[in-house]
Design goal:
The complex is a heterodimer of chains A (568) and B (285).
Chain A (H helix, E strand, L loop, with lengths): L1 E9 L3 H14 L3 E7 L6 E11 L10 E6 L2 H7 L3 E10 L6 H4 L4 E4 L1 H8 L5 H12 L7 H8 L2 H16 L11 H7 L6 E5 H12 L3 E4 L6 H14 L2 E4 L3 H13 L4 E5 L1 H16 L4 E7 L16 H6 L8 E4 L3 H18 L2 E7 H5 L1 E5 L43 E3 L13 H18 L7 E4 L5 E6 L3 H14 L4 E6 L1 E3 L4 H8 L3 E6 L5 H10 L5 E4 L8 H12 L2
Parallel strand pairs in A: 1-4, 4-5, 5-6, 8-9, 8-10, 10-11, 11-13, 12-13, 17-18, 17-20, 20-21
Antiparallel strand pairs in A: 1-3, 2-3, 2-14, 7-14, 12-19, 16-18
Helix pairs in contact in A: 1-6, 4-5, 4-7, 5-7, 6-7, 9-10, 9-14, 11-12, 17-20
Chain B lengths: L15 H15 L7 E5 L14 E4 L6 H10 L4 E7 H7 L1 H10 L4 E6 L34 H8 L3 E6 L3 H13 L4 E6 L11 H7 E3 L9 H8 L6 E8 L5 H4 L1 H9 L10 H9 L3
Helix pairs in contact in B: 1-6, 3-4, 5-8
Classes of the chains: A alpha/beta (568), B alpha/beta (285).
Chain lengths: 568, 285
């Protein structure tokens, strides 16, 4: 497994080069995981990607580098300490470096911009660097033409190919693969059996599979790429994507669309979710299904717009006045994003409740290679239009769910009301009706117990130390567990929660009883999941690892922190 | 016997809402509407209770948020006649931002604003359309904010149907309502109505003395003239269609919805195409 950094100022093409390289590597038979560290600016500043690849499964990023493509001086300054002694730092010979850096044996200076100009266009300097990096990493150029055909305008494919070749010819192989990749590539038909995508795209695809018909949102990092992807497919797939005037409009529109029979979803980040809170209650009160995606970023307020955090958990499980049923699903990785989104739609429709998908910038923006998605279990969407003369929209029912109908049908009226209402959907202040309606709605929380997925267990079943995580820390924790169990004499297990509300309590209760230590690992300052676990099970953590600097924790950091905790 | 049944209301005797509800039923009857093709939507307020008192599909959502779900319901199900019935506070105060953007979006819905120039549900505070200087319990030295002009705002934001009516001129109101419902696009009718309990300034007599009907000589298709008409001082209140213009609607501009129209199926009744989703997945290889 190798790890490559591409860094530069915003506007220098870090993301374009990353997208090309990760796809070339994937098509060559590698697993790939790419973490994007972006600043909230359009020009300048410093952006970088960490592209990790190899034949083994890769669940998270690492900051130990085998190589670096530096598009500016700052990239070298910021990351040179992370490059291994046998690694490389690849840059344009025009970069002006301090003496020590210029003499660094890891440095490979190539005339990227001059060669690009000689080839005919200065913009292909990056492709020259990619060609060189592929050679250094022991990769070939076989996949470049196809990937270029998907990445650049057809008239630039030839020029870019020449640039790749120029870079490839300018350096020698530095790292050889330990075998197995060719076999993996062959088994995978040249890497095309699997797919490469980020979490936001996986959520959008899951929504399309589930029958999404209406998506409204107000642009907000890091959720906007969901809307961008859906917009790119909207005409063909028949989805109305509407940019609302604000998040309040976005959620109220989605509720109106869902009421009128169009399967609806909205996406935002924490700040936008704040504005949606009153209408979240409307979805619960009027029993109108809705899927809400919150791609978390660090708060409070504007916080760190393009970075990652898991600090909205306690907010979303209790947001909005009054009491009503809801479900909150935290997505653990890109594959989860797809399947859990489909599940969110199923549950929202079945119980007529809001379902919140809690993602974050790490899952949303990071790309990963996955097995192609399986659509075989997906069912068709659509509302019942059959005639029911004695129909009552909010009829009391044993299971708390009263059938929905499509407004516009010719034999019954479909009502919706934010006031407390009777079975007809008419305003009432009757104490008796109030209690029966509350009981009818809250009954759904009991029913949801049957839907709950227990947290995923990782590691050694005879653990002494149990790690607890949720959502996006799944990747770093799963890698850390392997390292911990192979490096020390002690045994470690981990429970990573996906469903977080209602909280599944069975496994945590059982496993906590036989753990010597329980340590929560969360990307927030207060241990929000630990708080929920304590509330619903009484289980107390014995230690905690909390990170809230806006950067995702990686396996090495977890291992170091756990060793420290265990040594206490 | 009306198709649109009447229910007992919670409004004060003498409230303009009664006349507006009566006129709405008449307008729907005269247009030959079937109650099952009508969706009545509202936010919260006294006027926003209107959907509760008429037999149709109803959606009573959040205060200030009547327009977003109404537009989306029409997008989801274009077979429905979507009518928003709500007050001045709901439409221009809490929901002011949605008002401007509903005009811009131009979804084919009808917006009847019961404008009593006061907050009635919360018992008598200034609304955006309260006359500047008017004294209320929480504005004891008078409302210091200038009075909002919804007609001028709607015309300047690009609305294609802007009208004013008065609850005391019922025949006229019915005609305006019918034209607004038939208009293809977002139609605003700001309906002045007395609030007998909380607005002692803008009474029935106040409006009755001031309103005058726009005659045949008025050119409602002239935008500048319409803006001038909308800016006439309060001493005279023109009622009728202030401005009208044929405009391309959201449904005509949105490619997804034009495709739905071509196939004769509303968005809500379309099914997802999993083979298409499979193709999108394959694009990621």
């Amino acid at each position: 497994m190798y790890n490559l950094l591409i860094g530069g100022a915003a506007g220098q093409g870090v993301d374009t080069l990353t997208a090309m390289l990760e796809r070339i590597l994937k098509r060559a038979g590698n697993n790939v995981f790419t973490y994007r560290d972006l600043m909230s600016r359009i020009r300048g500043g410093h952006n970088f990607s960490l592209i990790r690849f190899g034949v083994r499964d890769i669940a998270s990023h690492s900051y130990v580098l085998d190589g670096m493509i530096a598009l500016n001086e700052e990239t070298i300054e910021l990351h040179k300490d992370k490059v291994k002694s046998n690694g490389f730092i690849l840059c344009d010979s025009k970069l002006i470096l301090p003496e020590a850096d210029a003499a660094d044996p890891r440095l490979i200076k190539l005339p990227l911009s001059d060669t690009a100009k000689e080839l005919g266009n200065a913009v292909v300097a990056g492709s020259i660097a990619l060609g060189a990096a592929l050679k250094l990493m022991g990769e070939g150029l076989e996949q470049c033409a196809d990937v270029l055909a998907l990445s650049v305008k057809s008239e630039f494919v030839g020029l870019n190919l020449k640039a790749f070749e120029a870079g490839f010819g300018a350096v020698e192989v530095r790292f050889a693969h330990g075998g197995g990749r060719a076999a993996a590539a062959a088994a995978d038909a040249g890497g095309i059996g699997r797919i490469l995508l980020n979490g936001n795209k996986a959520i959008a695809l899951g929504a399309l599979a589930a029958g999404l018909k209406f998506y409204s949102a107000y642009p907000m990092s890091p959720s906007t790429s969901i809307m961008e992807y859906l917009s790119s497919k909207m005409i063909e797939s028949g989805v109305v994507v509407e940019q609302a005037e604000d998040e309040i409009a976005a959620i109220n529109m989605a509720i109106g669309a869902s009421y009128a029979g169009a399967t609806a979803m909205i996406g935002t980040s924490g700040g936008g979710f704040c504005l949606m809170v009153e209408a979240l209650g409307l979805s619960g009160m009027a029993e109108i299904p809705l899927v809400i995606v919150n791609v978390q970023r660090p708060g409070p307020t504007t916080g760190l717009p393009t970075r990652t955090e898991q600090s909205d958990l306690k907010f979303v499980v209790s947001a909005s006045q009054g009491e009503f049923p809801r479900m909150v699903i935290a997505v653990k990785n890109q594959e989860d994003c797809f399947y859990q989104t489909i599940r969110a739609f199923t549950i929202a429709e079945k119980y007529q409740i809001p379902v919140i998908i809690l993602s974050d910038q790490y899952v949303g923006d990071s790309t990963a290679t996955l097995n192609s998605f399986d659509l075989s279990g997906v069912s068709q969407s659509g509302l019942n239009e059959s005639c029911e003369p004695e129909y009552l929209r909010y009829r009391y029912s044993d299971d708390g769910v009263s059938p929905r109908k499509l407004p516009g049908n010719q034999c019954c009226f479909v009502t919706a009301d934010s006031d407390e209402h009777d079975e007809h959907g008419m305003i009432t202040e009757s104490a008796d009706v109030r209690v029966r309606m509350m009981d009818k709605r809250m009954k759904k929380l009991e029913l949801l117990q049957k839907e709950l997925q227990e947290p995923e267990f990782l590691g050694d079943k005879d653990f002494e130390t149990l790690l607890i995580g949720w959502g996006s820390t799944w990747g770093p924790i799963s890698e850390a567990i392997t390292l911990l169990n192979s490096n020390s004499g002690m045994k470690f297990g981990a429970l990573v929660f996906g469903d977080v509300f209602p909280l599944p309590t069975e496994k945590i209760t059982q496993m906590a009883a036989r753990a010597k230590r329980i340590i929560n690992i969360e990307q927030n300052a207060t241990g929000q999941l630990a708080g929920l676990i304590r509330e619903y099970t009484g289980v107390q953590m014995t230690g905690s690892v909390l990170k809230y600097d806006g950067r995702q924790i990686c396996a090495d950091e977890i291992v170091a922190a756990i060793n420290k905790e265990v040594g206490k | 016997m009306s198709n649109f049944e009447t229910f007992e209301t919670a409004w004060c005797p003498g409230c303009g809402n009664h006349s507006i509800l009566e006129c709405l039923k008449t307008a729907l009857e005269e247009l030959g509407k079937n109650p099952h093709e009508v969706l009545m939507m509202a936010g919260i307020g006294q006027a926003a209770k209107t959907p509760q008192y008429i037999s149709a599909h109803t959606f009573c959502g959040l205060h200030g948020r009547s327009l977003p779900p109404a537009q989306a319901a029409k997008i989801a199900n274009s077979d429905l006649t979507v009518i928003v019935e709500t007050g001045d506070g709901d439409s221009y105060g809490e929901g002011g931002n949605h008002f401007v953007h509903a005009v811009r979006r131009n979804v084919n819905i009808t917006h009847f604003v019961h404008d009593n120039q006061i907050y009635a549900l919360t018992k008598g505070q200034a609304s955006p359309t309260t006359t500047e200087g008017q004294v209320t319990e929480v504005q004891p030295t008078g409302s210091h904010n200038s009075s909002f002009n919804p007609l001028l705002m709607a015309i300047s934001a690009g609305a294609g149907f802007v009208a004013r009516a008065f609850s005391g001129e019922k025949e006229h109101l019915v005609e305006i309502m019918k034209k607004a419902i038939l208009y293809d696009g977002y139609a605003l009718v700001d309906i002045y109505q007395p609030c007998v309990s909380f607005n002692k300034i803008n009474t029935f007599a106040y409006y009755k003395q001031r309103v005058y009907k726009l005659g045949d000589d008025y050119n409602r298709f002239d935008k500048i003239g319409a803006m001038q008409k909308a800016m006439e001082p309060d001493s005279k209140i023109p009622i009728g269609i202030i401005y009208e213009e044929k405009k391309t609607t959201f449904h005509q501009k949105n490619e997804v919805l034009t495709n739905c129209a071509k196939s004769g199926v509303s968005l809500a009744r379309t099914k997802q195409d999993l083979s298409l989703v499979q193709r999108y997945i394959d694009e990621l290889r």
